[in-house]
Design goal:
The complex is a heterodimer of chains A (330) and B (338). Chain A is 78% helix and 1% strand. With 330 residues, chain A is mainly alpha-helical. Chain A has a two-stranded antiparallel sheet with strand order 1-2. Chain A is globular and about 65 Å long. Chain B is mostly helical. Chain B has a domain at 44-251. In chain B, 72% of the residues lie in helices and 2% in strands. In chain B, the strands form two sheets. Chain B has a two-stranded antiparallel ribbon with strand order 1-4. A two-stranded antiparallel ribbon of chain B has the order 2-3. In chain B, strand 2 and strand 3 form a beta hairpin. Chain B is globular. The termini of chain B are close together. Classes of the chains: A mainly alpha (330), B mainly alpha (338). At the A-B interface, helix 6, helix 12 and helix 14 of A face helix 7, helix 13 and helix 15 of B.
């Protein structure tokens, strides 16, 4: 009985458990290298995690509808490249317009994917795989195979990543705004709830009058728009845009969602969880080099942690379901 | 309702025969051949056509098990990482003093183990989707490859090893010959054996096949292990062709392979598709790549072409499936009337 209580507790406060794990990890890292929990390092870490958070929030909605989007790395690169080329041609362009341009390009990519998934009915994994290739190729094509380097970009553009709004770094500020928006959107709007309804049972959702195609379009367009935004931020942060920018980053984003407790079978996922999942990867990225773990071990360690988290999750879920069944019998 | 027997051999119909997706792929190959030979006068001869296969066939070995996996409505995105890990372990054990022959065996074992582990996780945790499991192992396997070799490369293989990459048997490249033999083997396995029928059954309805006594778990384990073994074979050919290996080899191979399988007309909804289609798709993409190389179009442009081709082919397949549903419902209604 005590065990089952514990399990129910853990499953209810999954996010708390994740937070606990992050804190323990942080303490261990801090113990080994006191430079970890300094203000400078923490703000660095936040800056580095901001883009991952933005993308993971969008990916959460896609995963909740039982979809997946493998094209976001390429969408990010394409909109980053187009924006970088534009600002290097028109150095006077306001950073706001640059961000807007990135969002528009990204949304256009998202609309294409949304159409393929909703109207044509291609499985998301295949459609986004095809588009990933196409967008990646277009990035090389648009850029002529060249980089756009730091000296070609105006200072105002590079300033997006280094400037502050209300004393907070702009990247972090944007991530916070998007987080708050998502928190409200997902929990308090009808459309937000429809996304979850569609994900947990597509058939009954359609029967109850939810326009599935509209929801799919919305989710993928939103994901595309966020990827576009992330593309501008990425290029501004690294002050260079290349054909292979963020290649394979979609997997990191999906990993953050999975760590955050989003189910790839749809219908399940919390905004807070995703944020913590992204933070966990951020702490690992930032902390492991600080305690002299070879950067080449990082990927393996991340792999083990993701696998353990996934298996742990299903074990807990299994036990909870078993307990529920037991209770029903009694 | 009259009782209706379903023939286990469908009646031959010319219309159905000609409407097969494979003809479309053959037409594509012919178009590519015509375009290629109009670009380069050196393209259209036996040596050139058969030698070109050496450049693109290595990853094609994974296509065979991937067809089965996708027919079972699963997916394996860890195969690229498996290639890297198998290749890295092979090179490392060889350089640690193991004879090359044994290192190749070790490579195959590592591949089998990686595939088995995927299958084991999927069977043990049925509620986990293959996307999650193989995504995790994809990161894990490549991570282990990085742990072993870090930023180094490993090579110095004996000279006979390069035979896998560049060798001939008579006038035919060794890799092409092995590909054809394995293609026939896998096609027979999928289309002519009980095992193959069971793979289709699992894809059409896993629960129903479980209740009808199909050993779903065992078949999944076997197919995923096969995927690992084929990834190891890819690793051998790839390593032999390049002469050395690094942890970042075979990056994104899984996506190329899945693209080939989807282009080959294997329905992503499971239960449908033929080995032949995927094999033809290998050559479509391979010769397309070769042709674009002939006119100096950068490899990145090929990405656009493959992406568009993939989406277009799946779209056409989807429309085709929809059309089939229509015709079948029509014939049903006719039966009801009679």
């Amino acid at each position: 009985m005590m065990e089952s209580n514990l399990i129910r507790y853990v499953s209810k406060f999954r996010e708390l458990g994740l937070l606990g794990f992050i804190i323990i990890l942080a303490i261990v890292i801090q113990f080994l290298n006191p430079a970890f929990l300094t203000l400078g390092n923490l703000s660095d870490m936040l800056k580095n995690t901001a883009i991952l958070c933005i993308l993971a929030l969008g990916m959460m909605l896609v995963l909740v509808t039982r979809g997946i989007d493998l094209s976001i790395g390429a969408t990010l690169a394409l909109s980053g490249m187009i924006t970088a080329l534009t600002v290097s041609a028109y150095p006077g362009l306001s950073p706001f317009l640059a961000i807007l341009l990135g969002i528009i390009v990204g949304s256009a990519c998202g609309v294409i994917l949304g159409l393929l998934v909703s109207k044509v009915g291609i499985l998301p994994i295949i459609a986004s795989l095809g588009l990933m290739n196409a967008f990646r190729g277009m990035t090389f094509w648009v850029g002529g195979g060249d980089w756009v380097s730091a000296y070609q970009m105006p200072d105002s553009f590079k300033g997006i990543a280094t400037s502050n709004i209300l004393g907070i770094n702009t990247l972090v500020f944007i991530a916070i705004i998007i987080f708050l928006f998502f928190y409200y959107f997902v929990n308090n709007t009808i459309t937000g709830r429809q996304i979850y309804a569609l994900g947990s049972n597509p058939d009954s959702a359609k029967i109850s009058g939810i326009n599935a195609n509209k929801v799919y379009m919305l989710v993928y367009t939103l994901m595309g728009g966020l990827s576009g935004l992330a593309g501008v931020l990425w290029v501004s942060k690294f002050a260079s845009s290349q054909g292979d920018t963020a290649s394979g980053y979609e997997l990191t984003v999906i990993a953050a969602c999975i760590l955050g407790g989003v189910s790839i079978n749809g219908g399940v996922g919390k905004v807070i969880g995703v944020l913590l999942g992204a933070f966990l990867l951020g702490v690992l990225d930032n902390g492991l080099p600080l305690i002299n773990v070879s950067p080449f071990w990082q990927m393996g360690i991340e792999g083990v942690i993701i696998l353990v988290a996934v298996l742990f999750n299903t074990e807990i879920k299994k036990k909870v379901e078993k307990n529920n069944r037991l209770r029903r019998v009694i | 309702m009259s009782t209706r027997t379903i023939n286990n051999v469908q009646n031959f119909s010319w219309k159905r025969f000609m409407l097969q997706w494979e003809w479309m792929l053959i037409a594509l190959i012919i178009i590519i051949f015509i375009v290629n030979s109009s670009i380069s006068p050196y393209f259209l001869n036996f040596t050139s056509i058969s030698d070109a296969t050496m450049t693109f066939l290595d990853k094609a070995f994974i296509v065979f098990p991937m067809v089965m996996i996708m027919i079972m409505r699963e997916i394996d995105i860890s195969v690229g990482s498996t290639v890297a890990l198998a290749s890295v372990v092979m090179a490392t054990t060889f350089n640690a003093g193991l004879p090359m022959e044994l290192a190749i065996v070790v490579c195959l074992l590592v591949g089998a183990l990686c595939g088995f582990f995927n299958g084991f996780l999927l069977v043990k945790y049925r509620e986990l989707s293959a996307v999650i499991v193989t995504l995790s192992t994809m990161i894990l396997y490549r991570g282990i490859a990085y742990m072993i070799l870090e930023d180094q490369s490993s090579g110095g293989f004996p000279s006979w090893f390069s035979y896998f990459g560049w060798g001939y048997i008579g006038p035919i490249p060794f890799i092409l010959l092995l590909f054809v033999i394995l293609a026939i083997g896998f096609a027979l396995l999928l289309h002519k054996t009980v095992f193959g029928r069971q793979v289709y059954a699992i894809g059409s309805n896993t629960t129903a096949s479980r209740f009808s006594g199909v050993k779903v778990d065992r078949i999944k384990l076997i197919v995923f292990t096969l995927a690992g073994v084929m990834a190891a074979i890819t690793a051998i050919f790839l390593t032999a062709r390049m002469g050395s290996t690094r942890p970042n080899v075979a990056n994104m191979y899984e996506l190329d392979v899945i693209a080939m399988v989807a282009l080959g007309g294997i329905s992503t909804a499971g239960g449908k598709g033929k080995m032949l289609g995927a094999i033809l798709a290998v050559f479509v993409i391979g010769y397309l790549q070769y042709g674009l190389g002939l006119i100096n179009i950068p490899a990145q442009m090929l990405l656009i072409v493959i992406g568009v081709l993939l989406i277009a082919s799946v779209t056409v397949t989807n429309l085709r499936v929809k059309g089939k549903f229509k015709t079948s419902s029509k014939s049903d209604s006719k039966e009801k009337v009679s």
